[in-house]
Amino acid sequence: xxxxxxxxxxxxxxxxxxxxxxxxxxxxxxxxxxxxxxxxxxxxxxxxxxxxxxxxxxxxxxxxxxxxxxxxxxxxxxxxxxxxxx
Length: 86
Hints:
By secondary structure, this protein is mainly alpha-helical. The protein has helices spanning 31-48, 53-85; strands at residues 9-12, 15-18. The relative contact order is 0.07.
């Protein structure tokens, strides 16, 4: 996990260098380790396929929006059921 701190992006020979970021390592095979590995593999796939950063951000926002919509629909359904029970 990254801690809040100074983060500078520097281009050096086409590489992006992040400074002053500390990363937490998780116990191997823990749920946290698997979660981070899954996210890393997905992001690596995007980067390896040279997907534009705006597309990556759009996809992330789209996924979060779809998840939010499903959660709201479930909330509305449960809320309606509670209202009918009263």
